[in-house]
Amino acid sequence: MKKILLVGKPNCGKSLLFNQLTGLRQKVANYPGVTVEIKSGRMAEYEIIDFPGTYSLNTLSIDEKVAVEQLTSRVKDEETELVVCVLDATRLERSLVFALQAQQLAIKENKQIVFVLNFIDEVKRFGHNIDLDGLSRELGAPVYALSARSLDGIAEFKDALLTAEYKNFPVQAPRAPLETTKQFVDFSRSLAKTYAMNKDVVLRNQNRVDTFLLNSFLGGFAFLAIMFVLFQSIFTWATPLMDGVETIIASFAGFVTQFTGEGVVTDFLNDAIFGGVGSFLVFVPQIMVLTFVIGLLEDSGYLARAALICHKPLSYFGLSGRSFIPYLSGHACAIPAIMAARTIESPRKRLITMLTIPLMSCSARLPVYALLVSVFIPSDQYFLGFFNMQGLTFFGLYMFGIVTALIISALLSHSKSTEQEQSEMPFIIELPSYRLPHWKPLYHRVINSGQQFIKRAAPVIFMVAVGIWVLGYFPLNASLEESWLGSIGHFIEPVFAPLGLDWRYGIAILMSFLAREVFVGALGTLYGMEGADENIAGLAQNIMNDGLPLGTGIGLLLFYVVALQCVATVATLKAETGNAKLSWGLYAAYGILAYILAFLANTFI
């Protein structure tokens, strides 16, 4: 199959163009390092390969190294027919350095290259026109103008690719000789001066906003306010959706079980399916709300500013401002967040970031948090009459994970030698233009987050729920405590008794070491089997009726904030660090720390 390689610097709109050409729903964001994997998609008879954003062929980060190595290899591939280099039309000079290097690589392998000026709608909005023919002559390759966001020029460009219009343009080098880095930079500057719009015009509006958001005093407050809204929204915005899902599950359960009558089948449906899996599905809207808010921050360009704001405070803990982006991504899922840490140039800071990312409260913890917070904090309780106390508690749990990560980061970085300190590279990050998020990829990302969470977690929760139900249902006519499951639970109960938890919670915690979210499904099955059929999806109410002490509940929350209960995360850490002992050692260390915190909370609260 013929291949087209799609390359460009970060924030040039390359991934959105990839989506428009292929129809795929790849994640699109507006900060450096978001795309850490190579994506591919079909467009007619072509396979389009989207490479991570790269500033130069002379790499600094692991992310760029992977991209450049793969690009060099794919350009040599006989099936590769074309290299498409995407340029940011509003920041032409910054885009051209890598573009010219990519062109030189393509010419070396006798491959065609075309240039795409993206964000042409913004250029027109500022009243500027770019001489495409003149720029094409200077570069020695075709130049197309389009906007992947507004779709201006997309149809024409796609048609040019499908008709192989670029073959009418012979493979040739730019007019200027390019051998040294200085020559690349000088030629890029010369082209931008001649063809690009006045960068002061582009920066004027951006600087006006940055004056506030990057202010040493006001910027910090703005950052805290934005983060606070993020965590408040997880609970307050999702509550109506969660209530709707709970109602649907309860209604559907009543509808289905009216046809099955009394017996084993009805018990299985009520306890294992609707009580176990159903209890977990109620919390999926929170994951989608979290994805939506983070997506807004990503696509708007604010995350790069947040990384800049966080650099100085994070440096006190041995981290970099670039650590902020993997940390924030870790609140959705630790696995891509660990991979996103590849963009951190310093090997030491990259390792520390990866080892502490599991302390970020990922979406798998959301069902556990939501369940226990709704048990202990009334939904109608507000702080100062405005801030929902459930949202504030959520904020506190997330902050506890972040603070714990920073303390551990400081301890890990304490042994840094003077030689390592001197070899650290300066913190450099590009501040992308502020842009309104594009609704289509954001919508797909939100929907996809819920779907992926269900696909990943539901099979595990289903198997655990069925296993627990079978063990708890037999022998027949025995009570739950006298069942096979009860025997196992009472055997392990001494381990969890110091935490104030009985055998049921011990079973749920043990099962959740496969994946944290299993805790809710397992507990839902156990309470369902104790005769909670009339309130199938209302697990929180069942726990309230059971009288779980406050200290025990807080200890359980702290346990789930810290414990690394995700085998997939451990596997990712092993793959990224190449050290199995370190990864499993971290798994054990966080588990022990979580147990100690839960014990202290149960003892003293």
From TrEMBL:
<keyword id="KW-0472">Membrane</keyword>
<dbReference type="Pfam" id="PF07664">
    <property type="entry name" value="FeoB_C"/>
</dbReference>
<dbReference type="InterPro" id="IPR011642">
    <property type="entry name" value="Gate_dom"/>
</dbReference>
<dbReference type="GO" id="GO:0005525">
    <property type="term" value="F:GTP binding"/>
</dbReference>
<dbReference type="Pfam" id="PF02421">
    <property type="entry name" value="FeoB_N"/>
</dbReference>
<dbReference type="InterPro" id="IPR011640">
    <property type="entry name" value="Fe2_transport_prot_B_C"/>
</dbReference>
<feature type="transmembrane region" description="Helical">
    <location>
        <begin position="548"/>
        <end position="572"/>
    </location>
</feature>
<dbReference type="Pfam" id="PF07670">
    <property type="entry name" value="Gate"/>
</dbReference>
<feature type="transmembrane region" description="Helical">
    <location>
        <begin position="392"/>
        <end position="412"/>
    </location>
</feature>
<dbReference type="InterPro" id="IPR050860">
    <property type="entry name" value="FeoB_GTPase"/>
</dbReference>
<feature type="transmembrane region" description="Helical">
    <location>
        <begin position="584"/>
        <end position="604"/>
    </location>
</feature>
<keyword id="KW-0812">Transmembrane</keyword>
<feature type="transmembrane region" description="Helical">
    <location>
        <begin position="324"/>
        <end position="344"/>
    </location>
</feature>
<keyword id="KW-1133">Transmembrane helix</keyword>
<dbReference type="InterPro" id="IPR006073">
    <property type="entry name" value="GTP-bd"/>
</dbReference>
<dbReference type="InterPro" id="IPR030389">
    <property type="entry name" value="G_FEOB_dom"/>
</dbReference>
<feature type="transmembrane region" description="Helical">
    <location>
        <begin position="272"/>
        <end position="297"/>
    </location>
</feature>
<feature type="transmembrane region" description="Helical">
    <location>
        <begin position="212"/>
        <end position="235"/>
    </location>
</feature>
<feature type="transmembrane region" description="Helical">
    <location>
        <begin position="505"/>
        <end position="527"/>
    </location>
</feature>
<feature type="transmembrane region" description="Helical">
    <location>
        <begin position="351"/>
        <end position="372"/>
    </location>
</feature>
<dbReference type="GO" id="GO:0015093">
    <property type="term" value="F:ferrous iron transmembrane transporter activity"/>
</dbReference>
<feature type="transmembrane region" description="Helical">
    <location>
        <begin position="457"/>
        <end position="476"/>
    </location>
</feature>
<feature type="transmembrane region" description="Helical">
    <location>
        <begin position="247"/>
        <end position="265"/>
    </location>
</feature>
<feature type="domain" description="FeoB-type G">
    <location>
        <begin position="1"/>
        <end position="167"/>
    </location>
</feature>
<protein>
    <recommendedName>
        <fullName>Ferrous iron transport protein B</fullName>
    </recommendedName>
</protein>
<dbReference type="InterPro" id="IPR027417">
    <property type="entry name" value="P-loop_NTPase"/>
</dbReference>
<dbReference type="GO" id="GO:0005886">
    <property type="term" value="C:plasma membrane"/>
</dbReference>
